[in-house]
Amino acid sequence: GEGSYERLLVGRMWRFVVMGDPLVSEFLVRDTDSVILAREVAAVDQWLHNSTALLHIMRDHPSHNGLILAGMWGGSRTRGGEKMTEMLQAMMRWPPRNIWDYDQVLLKRVVWPDMLDTVLAHDSYFCGNPHFQSRHRSQPFPTQRVGRYFVGWGPTRDHELPGITMCPSLCRPPQHQDWLYC
């Protein structure tokens, strides 16, 4: 109907509906304008095959300072479908608002507190930040950065490429401390 929640749901919020889909085992939430890099594929593979975490988060640029970036995370319904459905329902109880980062606000308020104990986060810059590391530890990306490209990059974000700086040694794989731009 005209006043239904679905009609009011802001465009960026639709990508979260997959959290409650019983036909989905794992899902990845991305911005439609981002290019999927081999680096991202390797990180997702590591989450899927070498962890038991329900949630996967990636931060790969100095500006990626949010708890969960709305276009750079994924979840496993196989490992916690009921939990994913509960979080989606909790998010949908919030009134729809047409605010630029409302999707990230809901991820921070609803998903982050519930998922802190079961997150695998790949992080290139904030791995030592206590705000992010309170109940889980991030880990380095499994592959070295190619040029200045970053997970979440797309042609509309070329202006962000110069922002790639050397990553802290704590964020580099122990066996690859030579990856200055990890």
Model description:
With 182 residues, the chain is of the alpha+beta class. The chain has a single domain (5-176), classed as Alpha-Beta Complex (Spore Coat Polysaccharide Biosynthesis Protein SpsA, Chain A), CATH 3.90.550. It has four helices and four strands; from the N terminus they run H-E-H-E-E-H-H-E. The chain has a four-stranded mixed sheet. The radius of gyration is 17 Å and the shape is globular. The termini are far apart.
Key attributes of the depicted protein:
alpha+beta; four-stranded mixed β-sheet; 4 strands; globular; 11% strand; Spore Coat Polysaccharide Biosynthesis Protein SpsA, Chain A; single chain; 182 residues
Architecture blueprint of SSEs:
Blueprint (H helix, E strand, L loop, with lengths): L4 H4 L17 E5 L7 H13 L4 E5 L12 E5 H16 L9 H14 L3 E5 L59
Give a short synopsis of this structure.
The chain has 182 residues and is α+β, with helices and mostly antiparallel strands.
Number of strands: 4
Question: Count of helices?
Answer: 4
Helix content: 25-40%
What is the CATH topology classification name? Spore Coat Polysaccharide Biosynthesis Protein SpsA, Chain A
Look at the structure and give the CATH class.
Alpha Beta
Strand portion? 5-15%
Which parts are unreliable, with pLDDT below 50 for 5 consecutive residues or more?
none
Give the termini separation. 50 Å
Strand order of the largest sheet: 1-3-2-4
> How does the overall form come out from the CA principal axes?
globular
Spell out the helices and strands N to C: HEHEEHHE
CATH architecture grouping: Alpha-Beta Complex
Largest sheet: 4 strands, mixed
Average pLDDT, rounded to a whole number, is 90
Structural class: alpha+beta
What's the structural domain tally? 1
- Radius of gyration based on Cα positions: 17 Å
